[in-house]
Every structure is written in C-alpha cells, then in structure tokens.
Design a protein that fits this description.
The protein is an all-alpha fold. Helix content is 71%, strand content 0%. It folds into two domains: 24-60 and 252-287, no CATH class; 74-236, MetI-like fold.
Amino acid sequence: MKFGITGISKRQFPFGLILYVGFLGLPLLAGLMYSLAYSFGLTGILSEGFTSSHWRDLLRDREAWLSLGYSLLLAVLTIFLTLIPALWLSWMAFCSPRIRFRKWLLLPMAFPPLIGAFAWYQILSPSGILSRLAYALGWVGSLEGFPRLVNDSQGMGMMITHVFLIFPLFSFLFMYQADKEKIADLWSICQALGCHRKQFLARVFVPLLLKKSMMLIRLYLIFLIGTYEVAILLGKTSPRVVTLYITEKLSGFDLEAVPVGHAMLVLYIILVGMIAFGRIRKSLSMS
C-alpha cells in the first residue's frame, strides 16, 4: 500500500474528500437552497408562491450592482497594494538574508480585523493621530481640513487596514516559496548567463512567486470581497460593500426587502464560487 504525504492511501482519499465536502459543503449548500427558495417566494413570512419579482427588483436595483462592483474593486485594489510590500520584503530577504525583520511581521498578524480597524480609525480619522500631528505641524489649518481617510467613498481606510493585516502573511509565503523553488540556484544560473538583478527580479522572481501563490491570492480575494468587520467600522453607507447591503436587506424592518437580500446572497455565492472553483478546477486539470 502506497502512502502520500498525508499518509492516506488512494482508496481512502475519496472517503476523506466526501467527509470534507459533507462537513463544509452541506451547510453552505443548505443555506444556498434556503436563500434560493426565499428569493423565489417559496418560503418566508410574505410568501405567496413562486415568483420572480424579487429577482427583477434586484436586477433593477442600481445600489445592488454598485455595492457588488464596489466590493470587487476594493478587493482587487487591496490585493494589488498588498502584493507590492510583500514582494519587496521577500526580495529584500532574498538579497540580504541577515536582515532581521521577520519577527516584526508577526505584529500585524496578531490583530483581529475588528481591532485592526479600530486602531486605524484612531490613526486616520479627522480627530485621529495623523490629523492632530498635521495640525500641530501647521500642515492644515484645522482638524476638519485633514483629508478624510475613513468612512470615505474611496475606501482608503478599509484598504489601508486590510493591507496592514494581510501583507505579513504574503511576505512569509513569498519567502517560503523562494526557498522552496530554490530561487538562489536560479539566480546563480541567471548570473552565469549574464542576467542583471533587475531582469531576474522582473522576469523570474516576481512571476514565479505569483504563479506559485495564485491559489492563496484568489482565496484572499474572496475573503476581501466578503469583508464585514472592517467595512462596518471604516466603510460608508453609500457606496457600501456587498456584505453590508445583504445584511441591511436581511435584518431591516422592510419585510419586502428580505427576499431581495436573499437573491443578492445567492448572486454573491455564485460569484465567489466562480472565483474559487474556477481556479481549483484548473489546478486539478494541470495536476
């Protein structure tokens, strides 16, 4: 009997996969089916039978599409801004292995999202540390003159908080991938071929690390699309992220808006599934 890395034989693997899907997939599937039935009027307090009017209301709701696009845009920008310092730190660690900054990277990872959001609110708000410092230095005439970085339409506070919380993880991941893929050996080969350091960084180091880490990048993209704790403290009422839109519809006093919230939840799960399982299917086909 041959065992893999996990010590599970090939005959036992399907059973483990079934257990995994059962524990994680069935609750999600049950919630999806309930929301789907609710969105079509098959259940709920105001249910009067099958109807597609709630889906038509959702498709005509400009605020729904704005919140969905806003969440996607913020997630993509946050991932992009996260990868820049993570790649730079991993490159610095590769060029100078004696630099000791890895322990400091553990500090942001100790912050829960809500605590991190509260900390950055105290720093970035109009009455926060940065605005008071700018006022003391004479850069602004009043605290109200400081640029608004929280509860703003651009989502600056949310992006800064997420970058602060996530980039250490990607930094450690890229450092690990660099060791695993023997980047030092590749650098020696490139040096022998006359490759410059900037060429190696742009054509080998960065593309290789991004390719090997694409699965985690996609998973964190899904996580950022569904952000809630940071958005509820640092976000704005309009435009708002899709999780806040769904929460307001489901928990509001307007009972007629509840099916619309369930419809949006179904649409959100379909979008997340397309992002997640599209990459997983590609990875399985390549393997």
